[in-house]
Each structure stands twice: as structure tokens, then as C-alpha cells.
């Protein structure tokens, strides 16, 4: 609760649109829902419904949607096997991914497709923008990569099977409780562990539990690498042994240091960090001091009714009019 003598901090909601579209495609394809032009709309409708529910829950001052550049990838240019092995996307999902930006722009919401980059880079930049401007930020996604952006000013709503209201809202304390990793160390943890979905192997010999234990015991990978370089990892091994014994486990310091000191281990870690780190310096185009610019709420009632109505789900249109335009429920019903 904000003290009465303090101005409430404004809130930016950043949405990982492709993540939500993928999730809703797989969850709702059985509905075969079509818009008024007869095109597949189940993923788009599911994403939009979840975002409307998020806006209703958190009451943000601005909303920004991150989209992937589907024409090029700086990460794939650097590493051609990036995300190799993923199943081919269904044509009906591709169609809805390609239409998402136009739908959101038509509503008056802000979208950003950074050249050669991904929605996660928009999330990273949104978190950085909020911190610089004294705002809070909530990132809505089903992708755990965004955990690296969690801080005192940024939380992540990670969508799971429970939907908006049944999904965990992660702050630094809850992230550590659930994963045993400090928010500031999540990128290092991911780099050690690797990411099979992006086809990025981890450091050999270090799985999720060992990576989390190492960071909890040593504090940071900067300290770990410095100790390995200057003292053959003796302090790291001792700290990890002490941590493990305190947890009722066996000594594992010497084994972990051996893996970290092996040829190629540091290179693998550094490569993963470079691939996984989100670009946090994108120009988001947000101008919160200029009323009516894309991304600011509330939206125009006629625009919302027309655009959402085209999806052909009356209940969602009614909800959108009420939530996105600030229209009371009774008035929204009359409008519909």
C-alpha cells in the first residue's frame, strides 16, 4: 500500500505476445474459432482475452507488446543452430502470429518488433525503461527467460495452466523461493544450466540443482571465475562444500570446480550469457506525457468495440469495452 504522502508509481505492462500466441494456439486449436472473415482466430482471441484480464487485474497505465522479428535473427546469424530442433509451426499458428501486430495496432495498443531481435528483448527494454522512469513493470509471458529481468521494480506473471488468476506473479523473493536462485543471478544460472528449447547446451556436469547451489554458495559467477583463475577454485570448493553440508548433502565442491575448470567450460558459459542476455536499450517509442499515444489507457470505445468485435466473441468484446475504455459495466452492456 502506498503511503498517503507518496504518489503511486505508474505501471507498465509488457506482454510477450508470441509466447501467449503459442500457448493459446495449443490450448484452443480444438475450438476452431474463426473471425468474421472466416480466418483462424483462436490463438489471437486467447492472447487478447488473457491480456484484457491482466489489465483488469493490474490496472496498468501503459501496455506494450513485444513481437519477434520473423524475417531475421541476430542470434541465429551468430549461431545457426539457435532454436534448431523445434517442431515446425502449424500454418494456422503462423497466420495468427503474422496478424497479431496489426490487430494490436488497430486497437491503439503499442507494439514493437525490433529488427533481428525477439519479444524477450522488448521485455528486457521495458524493464529497463520502467526502472529509469520510476515506474513499476509487470511482464506477462509463459517463458522463463524473462526471469532474468525480475528486480525490485519488475515482476513476471508467468502464465501456466491456471490462466491469469492461477499463475504465479514472481518477484525476487518468490523467485528465490521457487527456484533457489537470486534474481540478479538468474542469467548466470540459465547460462550454466543451458536451454534445450533454444538448443543451447549448458556447462558439462552442471545441471539445474548444481548451478543453483553454486550461485547460492559463491554469490556470483564473477567471484567463481576469479577464484578458479587465481586460486584454482579452492574458495569456491570450500564454500560449496559448506553449503552442501548445511543442506544435509554430500561434499561436491571439488567435482564442480573440476567441471568449471575443464577446457571450454568458461567459453560455453560466456557464449550462453551473450545469447541469452536480453537487449535492454531498445527505443520503445513510449511517450506517456502525450495523451492518446499508442499504449496508453484508456482506449477509444468505438475502436475497441469494432476491432475486438471482429473476433466474433461477444463476451470478450463486452469485457474489452469495459476494461480497455474505462466504461462501467452497465454502460458497456448498453454499448454492446
Automatic annotation (TrEMBL):
**GO molecular function terms listed in the Swiss-Prot or TrEMBL record:** 5'-3' exonuclease activity; 5'-flap endonuclease activity; DNA binding
Q: Kindly indicate whether the keyword Transferase belongs to this entry.
A: no
| Gene3D superfamilies, sorted | 5' to 3' exonuclease, C-terminal subdomain, 5'-nuclease
Where in this chain does the record put each 5'-3' exonuclease domain?
A: 9-263
Which keywords does this Swiss-Prot/TrEMBL entry list? Answer: DNA-binding, Exonuclease, Hydrolase, Nuclease
Entry-linked Pfam families: 5_3_exonuc (PF01367), 5_3_exonuc_N (PF02739)
Which protein, by its recorded name, is this?
5'-3' exonuclease
Query: What is the organism field in this record?
Result: Nocardioides zeae
Task: Recite the lineage of the species.
Answer: Bacteria, Bacillati, Actinomycetota, Actinomycetes, Propionibacteriales
Amino acid at each position: 500500500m502506498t503511503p498517503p504522502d507518496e504518489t503511486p508509481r505508474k505501471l507498465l505492462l509488457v506482454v510477450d505476445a508470441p509466447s501467449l500466441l503459442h500457448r493459446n494456439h495449443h490450448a484452443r486449436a480444438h475450438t476452431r474459432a474463426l473471425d468474421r472473415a472466416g480466418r483462424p482466430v483462436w490463438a489471437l482471441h486467447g492472447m487478447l482475452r488473457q491480456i484484457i484480464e491482466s489489465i483488469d487485474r493490474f490496472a496498468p497505465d501503459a501496455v506494450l507488446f513485444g513481437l519477434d522479428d520473423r524475417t531475421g535473427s541476430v542470434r541465429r546469424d551468430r549461431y545457426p543452430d539457435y532454436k534448431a530442433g523445434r517442431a515446425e509451426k502449424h500454418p494456422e499458428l503462423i497466420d495468427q502470429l503474422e496478424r497479431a501486430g496489426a490487430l494490436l495496432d488497430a486497437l491503439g495498443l503499442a507494439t514493437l518488433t525490433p529488427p533481428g531481435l525477439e519479444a524477450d528483448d522488448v521485455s528486457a527494454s521495458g524493464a529497463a525503461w520502467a526502472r529509469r522512469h520510476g515506474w513499476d513493470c509487470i511482464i506477462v509471458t509463459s517463458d522463463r527467460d524473462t526471469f532474468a529481468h525480475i528486480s525490485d521494480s519488475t515482476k513476471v506473471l508467468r502464465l501456466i495452466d491456471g490462466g491469469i488468476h492461477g499463475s504465479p506473479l514472481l518477484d525476487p523473493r518468490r523467485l528465490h523461493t521457487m527456484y533457489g536462485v537470486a534474481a540478479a543471478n538468474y542469467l548466470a544460472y540459465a547460462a550454466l544450466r543451458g536451454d534445450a528449447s533454444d538448443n543451447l547446451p549448458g556447462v558439462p556436469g552442471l545441471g539445474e540443482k548444481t548451478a543453483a547451489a553454486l550461485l547460492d554458495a559463491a554469490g556470483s559467477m564473477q567471484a567463481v571465475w576469479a577464484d578458479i583463475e587465481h586460486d584454482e577454485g579452492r574458495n569456491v570448493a570450500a564454500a560449496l562444500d559448506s553449503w552442501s553440508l548445511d543442506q544435509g548433502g554430500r561434499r561436491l565442491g571439488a567435482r564442480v570446480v573440476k567441471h568449471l575448470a575443464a577446457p571450454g567450460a568458461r567459453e560455453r558459459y560466456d557464449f550462453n550469457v551473450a545469447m541469452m542476455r536480453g537487449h535492454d536499450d531498445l527505443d520503445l517509442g513510449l511517450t506517456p506525457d502525450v495523451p492518446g499515444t499508442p499504449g496508453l489507457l484508456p482506449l477509444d470505445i468505438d475502436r475497441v468495440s469494432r476491432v475486438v468485435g471482429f473476433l466474433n466473441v461477444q463476451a470478450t468484446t463486452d469485457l474489452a469495452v469495459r476494461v480497455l475504455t474505462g466504461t462501467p459495466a452497465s454502460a458497456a452492456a448498453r454499448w454492446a
